[in-house]
Amino acid sequence: MELATTLKGQTIQNRVREIGINPNYWYPVAWADSLKVGQVTPVTLWQQSIALYRDDQGQVHALENACPHKGIELHRGEVLGDRLVCPYHGWEFNSAGECVNIPYFPPEQKLPCASARSYPTDEKYGIVWVFPGDSTLATLRQIPEVPEYSDPNSLVIPITGMFNSHFSISNENTMDVFHGYLHKNLQGWFDPFLLSLKQTDSTVDAEYRVSYRGFLSKLLGLSTESNGITTRIVSIHYNYPHYHSTMEGVSSLYLMRMPVGPNETRSFSLLFLPKVRISKRLQNLVKPILVPLVRRFLFMRFLEQDVEMMESEQRIFQQNPQRRYVEVNPAILALQRVLVRQYEQFVQQSSQLEHRQEESESNQTQEALVTGQMPESSVR
Ligand code: FES
Ligand SMILES: [Fe+2]
Predict the structure, then answer these.
(1) CA 118, CA 61: separation in Å to the nearest integer?
(2) Could you tell me if the CB of 70 is within 6 A of ligand 1?
(3) Tell me, what's the pLDDT at 378?
(4) Is the CB of 86 under 6 A from ligand 1?
(5) CA 351 to ligand 2 center in whole angstroms
């Protein structure tokens, strides 16, 4: 749906700062190269603690980080082949989370029915992904497409972001091109103008026009003169729960969001500079120098200023969650609607599912009363 681009004051519904995620999407949880064969590490994805491990074949698995025996965190254990072993009594769990061995059990003894929840995982673009929702939906949902990643001559700059703020605050920061003022000492952009805006149930597409001047813009290939002004189009595509933003011919940035909890969000970003095309062979030489340089002196300087604002916004919100704020950018308001709608859709679908399960269990019980055989679920 095409939306008006007029800037107009509207009160923000603070509910957007208190909503949860829709877990029925793929979320990034770690850089793939940070998890070596045989290693296990804890990650938290929207308040769910997960033990992430790489087995001896290089496959990544994700189990609920709590042993079904006594609740010990499984990330404290060790990897044995394709299993994760709890450090307390040595129970072994396979990648489906089932207990497959108890070292002190006689071989013929039946194992107890005990399992840790397992999550679908995938590895793509150097990132480990986890699907925290209904696992039957995992194959129906796509990890975002990053076509530049498979281009051998394009240089990828991975960047990690950590913010002590709700995911709505960090997502609004990305959609908010009107905050060039914050970055004025970095020769950030000026004269922003919202050109077009579209919204669906799960996406927001905004196009802005912005201007740049100064040395940095020359370096980025935005202008030919160091004191000249160049005007560019910035396209921001939000496809719940991740971002892709491009600046005409200059950069393509993918921001994969990892909501950790109500006050903490991480970002796994992939930055591509289309003008910087280096052969694979040369990349191995320049990468160790160029990647940290671009990260440190271009990206992080902007990000650090953003983080300060996002965290300040979060702190003040927590001090007084009742206070109402005013927004003027219709792109932010559209984004807030998508975030709230996605959460509400998930809550609604889960309650419908629960209702159906209760109905089927009560039907089974009624049948059992007639036949005299109790269903398994009511015996447990
Ligand atoms: S607590 Fe994990 S094996 Fe006992
Ligand atoms: Fe910024």
Answers:
(1) 8
(2) yes
(3) 38
(4) yes
(5) 38
> Which is the closest atom of ligand 1 to the Cα of 77?
2
Residue owning the nearest CA to atom 3 of ligand 1: 89
Tell me the average pLDDT of the chain: 90
Q: Are residues 182 and 282 in the same domain?
A: yes
Domain of residue 43, CATH code: 2.102.10.10
- Candidates 183, 138, 198; CA nearest to 3 is 198
21 lines ligand 1 (CB under 6 A): no
Structure token digits, residue 280: 């694979």
- If you measure from the C-alpha of residue 376 to the centroid of ligand 1, how many angstroms do you get, rounded to a whole number? 26
pLDDT tens profile 100-111:
999 999 989 999
Indicate if 280 and 228 belong to the same structural domain: yes
What's residue 220's pLDDT? 64
Query: Looking at ligand 1, which atom is closest to the CA of residue 70?
Result: 1
Q: Is there a single domain that holds both residue 237 and residue 314?
A: yes
68-115 pLDDT, tens digit per residue, is 999 999 999 999 999 999 999 999 999 999 999 999 999 899 999 999
Q: Is the pLDDT of residue 234 over 80?
A: yes
In this structure, are residues 232 and 246 in contact, taking their beta carbons and an 8 Å threshold? no
Q: Is 49 left (phi over 0), alpha (psi -120 to 50) or beta?
A: beta
Q: Is the CB of 102 under 6 A from ligand 1?
A: no
- Quickly state the pLDDT bin for 375 (edges 50, 70, 90): very low
Cβ of 93 less than 6 Å from ligand 1: no
Residue 155 shares a structural domain with residue 245: yes
Q: For residues 210 and 325, state if they share a domain.
A: yes
Give the residue from 165, 174, 379 showing the smallest Cα distance to 269: 174
Distance 267 CA to ligand 2 centre (A): 14
What pLDDT does residue 223 have? 59
Domain count, the chain: 2
Nearest ligand for residue 253 CA: 2
Q: Kindly indicate the confidence band of residue 188, based on its pLDDT and cuts at 50, 70 and 90.
A: confident
Domain housing 192 = 147-334
Asked if residue 173 and residue 125 are part of one domain, the reply reads no
Residue 137: Cβ-neighbour burial (10 angstroms; 0-12, 13-18, 19+): middle
Residues 246 and 122 occupy one common structural domain? no
